[in-house]
Task: inverse folding
């Protein structure tokens, strides 16, 4: 049985990983739901906002913040420097908003992989037991760079 401190630490503790294909991420969503996770606790960030939106709509997962509405939804994931439309100026991309919502530190070493074509996968876990289950599912479905981010990291 978990003590109160362990429960508090495990709340909203994301387990994250990288997939090379959307199909792998789809299988992971299905396996996590079969294991008792809620689709709303799963967020998948593709290298472009439209693919992230399509995936979330198809699998009923949470849309990564910044990929659906506002200026960032139509900008490249990492934003622009104002080069596409100098009159408009720079636009902040959805990447920082999405990472924040997914509980992933912006300096996580694998963030760059998303910008290079891979898929960032996050499942919010509410207990240490859920974290262990999520890690196991991600391992079995081919995720790479699996990590569990502790609150405050």
Result:
């Amino acid at each position: 049985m978990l003590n109160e401190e362990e429960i508090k630490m495990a709340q909203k503790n994301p387990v994250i990983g990288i997939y090379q294909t959307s199909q792998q991420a789809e299988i992971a969503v299905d396996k996590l739901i079969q294991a008792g996770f809620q689709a709303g606790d799963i967020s998948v960030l593709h290298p472009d906002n439209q693919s992230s939106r399509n995936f979330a709509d198809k699998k009923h997962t949470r849309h990564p913040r910044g990929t659906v509405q506002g200026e960032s939804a139509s900008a490249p994931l990492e934003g622009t420097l104002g080069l596409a439309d100098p009159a408009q100026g720079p636009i902040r991309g959805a990447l920082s908003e999405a990472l924040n919502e997914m509980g992933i530190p912006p300096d996580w070493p694998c963030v760059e992989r998303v910008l290079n074509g891979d898929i960032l996968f996050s499942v919010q876990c509410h207990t240490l037991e859920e974290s262990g289950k999520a890690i196991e599912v991600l391992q079995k479905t081919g995720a790479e760079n699996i990590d569990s981010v502790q609150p405050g990291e």
In short: Residues 16 and 122 are 4 Å apart (CA to CA). The first helix runs from residue 4 to 10.
